[in-house]
Specification:
The structure is a homodimer. By secondary structure, chain A is of the alpha/beta class. The first copy, chain A, is built from 15 helices and 16 strands. In chain A, 41% of the residues lie in helices and 19% in strands. A 7-stranded parallel sheet of chain A has the order 10-9-11-8-7-12-13. Chain A has a 4-stranded parallel sheet with strand order 5-4-3-6, with helices on both faces. In chain A, a hairpin with a 7-residue loop joins β14 (400-401) and β15. In chain A, α7 runs parallel beside α8 (159-176). β16 of chain A pairs parallel with β13 of chain B, so a sheet runs across the interface. Chains A, B: Pfam families: Aldedh.
C-alpha cells in the first residue's frame, strides 16, 4: 500500500491531537452538561430533519449510481422513523446513569491505607463503520456521556449523512459548553487514512471496527493500538429433551426468521434425539413456510422425509462447512444430538462465541449449559435476538464484542470506561528503615 | 526472521491444543479442588526445597559462565526466603475468593427477561517472562484459581528452575484432580517460538509479557492475539503548597529510595513554588545522604546552591529528557511548579500512566488530583511503592497493566476473568408477528 502523503498525515494527526487535547476538560465535565448536550442534539436533529433527509438523499443517489447493493442502500437510508430512532437514542443515553467517577468498590488495608477503584473514560476512541449513518449518533452519544473523545470514520457511501449529523452534534456541544473538538469526523474517504490511524499508539486508546468480517480482520491485522473486535455471529439454539416444545417453536422461529441478516440470529439448530420425531416436523413446517431453507444431518433428513411440509420447502443435506457458516439469510443448519454434552461440544467447535441458547425445563441441564458454554451471551429459554445493548437495557451500544478481554457482548456506557485505582493514605510508606527521620537533626 | 521448522510448529501447537482441551473441564471444576491443588503445591515446594535450590544453582552457574549481569543473577536466585515467598503466594491465593461464576449483577427487563453478568475465565493465557523463576509459581497459581489454562514461557536463563517448579505444580494437579495439561511449560529456548505463539489467534486468548520495554514492544508489534502490556513506570510525586512536610519527607524518600529498581518507584518530584525554599533543602539532604543523584530545574538549583547538603551530594541541571526517563536507579528529576494545574499537565506530558501522587492536606486539591490524573494508580499522601497486587490486597499479581483497556494497574484474580451475559427467559422472543402460532392448525 502506498505511503500516505505528508499533508494527509498532518491533517489526520491534527484531528487526533485536537480530540486528545480535550481529555483533561472532559474528565472534569459534569453529567449535567453532558446530558444537556445530548438533549440539545436530539432537538437539533428533530428541527433539521429535512436537511438531514436531503443530505441522505444525495448519498442514496450516489450509492444507486455506483450500483451498491439493495442491502447497503437500505442500511444507508434515513427516513423519519430512523431519525426518530436517533432522537430516542440521544434521550435514552441522557437518561442513563453516568459511569464516570463511579467508585465500584473501596477497601481498607490492615495499615489503614484505603484502596478504591474509580471508573474513568478510556480516552480517545476510534470507531470505523460502514453505511449506517445512525451509528454516528449512537457512537457519539455514548462517548459524550462517558467523557471520551471520539474519532468517527464512517463509510464513504454515507459521507453527506454523517457530515451533517456530526455538524449537529458539534453544534449542540458548542451551545451547551461541551468541548466540540472531542467529536472528530474523518471526511477524507482515502482508505489509507484508516491504516494510519490504527498506528497511532499513545494518541488513540482503542479502535472499534463495526462491519463485515473482512474489514475487522484487516483492522486487527494492521492495528498497533488495542482493537475491540466483533468477528461474526454463528449462533446456535439447542432444543433439549426436556424442552417445552410450544416455547421452542416460538423461540427458534424468532431467532431465525425475525431478522436473519443480523449477527444475533441463529445459524444452527440442535435437537435432542428423544424429541426430534415430535419436534422437527412441526418446526420444519413453520420455518419452511417462512421461507427458511433447511440444511440437515442424516437423522433429521430421515425424519423430515416423511413429514408434511409446505410445497415450496427446501430441505438439503448439510455439509460440515454449513455448521461453521454465518448465513445471515433464511438458511438454517440442523443437527440431531444425543445429549447435552454433545450440544455443548458442537457449540464449542462450530460457534463464534457470540450468542447461544438452550431450551429446556430441566434445572440441571440449564444450569450446566449457562455455566459451561463460553459465549458472550448464553441463553435459557429465550431468543438469541436479544443480544443488543438496547434490549439488555444498556441504552445504545458501541458494538458487540466477540473478544475475550475488556468486554464480551454488547458494549455499553460502562464498557467505555475502566477502573483506575485511587489510594488514600495519611503518610503511608512501605518501610524506610527508620530514615530519614533519624537524620533530621543533621540538617 | 527464519521460518519455524515444521516439527517445532507441531510441538508448539500440540502444547497449546493440550492446554486448550482442558478448558471445558476447568470451567466446571470446584473451588475446593483448585484450593487443594494450590495447597498441595505449597507442600511439595516445601518438601522438595533442596532439589529446587539445586536446579537453581545450575541456572546460576550457567548465568555466571555466560557473564550475565549481577542484577539478572540476583533476580534468578532462589534462596530459602524466596522459596518461602512462593509458598506464601500459593497459600494466599488459596485463601482468596474465587471470582469464577460470580454474578456481579443481574437485572430484570420490563418484559420479565432476566439479564446477568457472570464472571468466567479468559481461557488460555500466555505469559512471557524473564529471569525471576517465582513468576512461574505466581502466574500459575493465579491461573489455577481462576480456571484458566496457562502457557509458561520463561527466560532460558531460568530453565532448570522453571522446569522443576512446573513439574511440582503438575504433580500437585495430578494428585488433586486438577487437569495437569492446563499448565504448559515451553522448554525450547528458541526465540522464534514466542513469535509463533503470538500468532495463535483463537487458540491463545491473551498474552501477558513481563519484562523490559523492548521485550514488550516486540511482543506487541508481533502479536495477532490481544496483549496486556506494561511499558514502564515514570512515576511522579507532587508536593503541594498545602503538604504536611513531615509526611512529604518520608513519602518521597520511600518512593525513591526503598527500591529504586522497580516500576512503582518515582523518577520525578514536583514541588510547589511556595514551599520549595523550606522543603527542598531538607528533602535534598535526605535523598543525597541515601545516595540519590538529583537532576533539578533552574529554580531548584538556585535554592539548593546555598543549601547544606552531604559532602558527596550530586546535584545536576535537569534536561528535558530527564523528565521522560525511567531511571530505575538512585536518580531523581526535580522541578518546581506554580500550581496544581501545572503539576497535572506535567504528569500528563512526561508520565507513563503508571502511579502518580499528590502530597497535600488541601481537600479540593486532593479531590481534583485524584479525579483528573489519568494513571493506573493515583495516590494521595502515600508512597507510590504500594502499586503491587499483594500490597493492594489482591494476593499475587499477573503483572501491572499500563494499558487502558481490560485492566489498569496490578492484574489480580478478578482481572483474569471477564463477565459473560447470562439471560434467563420463559419463552421470551422479540416479535414473531403472531406466527407461527396461527399456522399451528395446518400441521
Amino acid at each position: 500500500m502506498a505511503e500516505l502523503e505528508k499533508e494527509l498525515k498532518e491533517y489526520l494527526k491534527g484531528k487526533v491531537l485536537k480530540a486528545r487535547s480535550t481529555l483533561r476538560e472532559l474528565i472534569n465535565i459534569t453529567t449535567e452538561v453532558k446530558n444537556r448536550t445530548l438533549l440539545r442534539a436530539a432537538e437539533l436533529i428533530d428541527r433539521r430533519r429535512e436537511e438531514i433527509k436531503e443530505a441522505n438523499r444525495r448519498d442514496i443517489e450516489t450509492a444507486k449510481r455506483m450500483g451498491l447493493s439493495k442491502a447497503v442502500i437500505d442500511r444507508l437510508l434515513l427516513n423519519d422513523k430512523r431519525i426518530d430512532g436517533m432522537i430516542k437514542v440521544l434521550k435514552d443515553v441522557a437518561n442513563l446513569e453516568d459511569p464516570v467517577g463511579k467508585i465500584d468498590k473501596m477497601w481498607t488495608r490492615p495499615d489503614g491505607l484505603k484502596i478504591g477503584k474509580m471508573r474513568v473514560p478510556l480516552g480517545v476512541i476510534l470507531i470505523i463503520y460502514e453505511s449506517r449513518p445512525n451509528v454516528t449518533v449512537e457512537a457519539a452519544s455514548l462517548c459524550i456521556k462517558t467523557s471520551n473523545a471520539i474519532i468517527l470514520r464512517g463509510g464513504k457511501e454515507a459521507l453527506n449523512s454523517n457530515k451533517i449529523l456530526t455538524e449537529i452534534l458539534k453544534e449542540a456541544a458548542r451551545e451547551t459548553g461541551f468541548p466540540q473538538e472531542a467529536i472528530q469526523f474523518i471526511e477524507n474517504p482515502d482508505r489509507r487514512l484508516v491504516w494510519e490511524l490504527l498506528k497511532m499508539e499513545g494518541l488513540i486508546d482503542v479502535a472499534i471496527p463495526r462491519g463485515g468480517e473482512s474489514l475487522i480482520r484487516a483492522v486487527s491485522e494492521n492495528a498497533k493500538i488495542p482493537v475491540i473486535k466483533h468477528y461474526k455471529g454463528v449462533c446456535t439454539l439447542f432444543v433439549d429433551k426436556y424442552a417445552d416444545l410450544e416455547k421452542a417453536y416460538d423461540i427458534v422461529f424468532n431467532a431465525k426468521v425475525q431478522r436473519p441478516s443480523v449477527c444475533n440470529a441463529i445459524e444452527n439448530l440442535l435437537v435432542h434425539k428423544d424429541i426430534a420425531e415430535e419436534f422437527l416436523p412441526k418446526m420444519a413446517y413453520f420455518l419452511a413456510k417462512a421461507g427458511v431453507e433447511l440444511r440437515v444431518d442424516e437423522g433429521a433428513m430421515e425424519i423430515l422425509k416423511s413429514a408434511k411440509l409446505p410445497e415450496n420447502a427446501v430441505v438439503k443435506a448439510a455439509t460440515e462447512e454449513d455448521y461453521y457458516e454465518e448465513f445471515l439469510d433464511l438458511i438454517l443448519a440442523v443437527k440431531i444430538v444425543d445429549n447435552l454434552g454433545e450440544a455443548i461440544a458442537f457449540i464449542e467447535k462450530y460457534g463464534s462465541k457470540h450468542s447461544d441458547g438452550i431450551i429446556s425445563e430441566n434445572y440441571s441441564n440449564v444450569k450446566k449449559f449457562l455455566e459451561t458454554v463460553d459465549s458472550a451471551a448464553v441463553y435459557a429459554n429465550a431468543s438469541t435476538r436479544f443480544t443488543d445493548g438496547n434490549e439488555f437495557g444498556l441504552g445504545a451500544e458501541m458494538g458487540i464484542s466477540t473478544d475475550k478481554i475488556h468486554v464480551r457482548g454488547p458494549m455499553g456506557l460502562e464498557d467505555l470506561t475502566i477502573p483506575k485505582y485511587i489510594i488514600l493514605g495519611e503518610g503511608h510508606i512501605r518501610d524506610n528503615f527508620g530514615v530519614p527521620k533519624e537524620w533530621k537533626e543533621e540538617v
